[in-house]
Amino acid sequence: MTAIAQGTVHEVPADLEAALREQPAQLALWQGLTPLGRNEFICWVEDAKQPATRAKRITRTLAELAEGNRRPCCWAGCIHRTDKVPGKWQHAVLVEGKRRRD
């Protein structure tokens, strides 16, 4: 079995790896992503708070790969990277957990 390519900060979780291995075409696309692109998908999946959301994100990851996307759509980006400081919005919303004012 071929080793699955990892991200720059995050490692591929078992559930995402299993889903990728079930879809050889998407696995090939995954292997062709940059480490940073893989990292963004992994962080996005792991950021889900509910198991149902996580499952939907894994399904959507496979769909986005099939559509040719190299990063998750509508994702602000991984806040765990040490090579890049989170932007003001990322820090407020993702790091500090602040909500929008209604």
From TrEMBL:
Pfam families: OmdA
Superkingdom, taxonomy of origin: Bacteria
UniProt-recorded name of the protein: YdeI/OmpD-associated family protein
Species name: Alteraurantiacibacter buctensis
Lineage, opening ranks: Bacteria, Pseudomonadati, Pseudomonadota, Alphaproteobacteria, Sphingomonadales
